[in-house]
Amino acid sequence: ALQLDPENTGFIGVETFASLVHSHELPLDPAKLDMLVALVQGNDEGQVCYQELVDLISSKRSSSFKRAIANGQRALPRDVLLDETGLGFYKRFVRYVAYEILPCEMDRRWYFYQHRTCPPPVFMAAVTLTQIIVFLCYGARLNKWVLQTYHPEYMKSPLVYHPGHRARAWRFLTYMFMHVGLEQLGFNALLQLMIGVPLEMVHGILRISFLYLAGVLAG
After folding, report:
1. Three-state DSSP class for 18?
2. Signal peptide position in this chain (predicted)?
3. How far apart are CA 80 and CA 89, in angstroms?
4. Same-domain check for residues 140 and 194
């Protein structure tokens, strides 16, 4: 550290840093190596901040680092993930999700390498499946599949939020299983599976469940 930053400024010259990256003895994660290169290429001040380096290695995404990536990504090949061969079905699915959801190549790579299969993304899938089952049950019970809220028996459900039953605290959460009709259910299910599941694959069940339930309570 003293050789790279003798004055202890917290910054390293980009040329020194670039040579260190390319001559490093230990094998680096390909995704992080690409980001290190982008960090150097996107730096306009000729110096690399030590804190940005720490944030990168620890997988944090500071705003300054995001700007560096955005500026440096133009010098990186944009078809790396598409050119990878020998991927199994699941990895090809992850790559497909990355290209459908994320517009930035660096974020696609980050997602591709950061996603986790263990634990599996069961929360969003379970919520969506429960919503479908509840809708089918009420559809059959009410014999109504469109605009169920217009049915006089709809508001008698113990799951629906009702202003007259605010003391029943569970209703502030269970209303998330009720839907107006097929259109709303389909739209919600599509968003939850296409966006919620990929998010859960990266951030885990605790974060995504907290975020989802916070949205339910806020709603």
Report:
1. helix
2. none
3. 18
4. yes
For residues 124 and 201, give the distance between their C-alpha atoms in angstroms, rounded to a whole number. 10
Residue range 106-146, pLDDT digits in tens = 677 777 777 777 778 899 999 999 999 999 988 888 888 88
Give strand pairing partners of 11: 49
CB 122 within 8 A of CB 205: yes
In a shared domain, residues 148 and 185: yes
By the 8 A CB rule, do 123 and 203 touch?
no
Structure token digits, residue 130: 């429960």
Instruction: Among 63, 93, 118, give the residue marking a domain's end.
Output: 118
Angle, nearest 10°, between helix axes 14-22 and 30-41? 160
Buried b (16+ CB within 10 A) or exposed e, 75-111: ebeeeebeeeeeeeeeeeebbebbeeebeebbbbbbb
Using an 8 Å Cβ cutoff, are 124 and 197 in contact?
Answer: yes
Q: Is the pLDDT score of 67 beyond 60?
A: no
Domain range for 92 is: 80-118
Quick check: 72 pLDDT over 50? no
Neighbours of 16 (CB within 10 A): 14
pLDDT at 74: 40
Position 213 scores a pLDDT of: 94
Cβ neighbour number for residue 189 with a 10 Å cutoff: 19
Residues 6+ apart with CB under 8 A from 111: 94, 97, 98, 101, 102, 198, 202
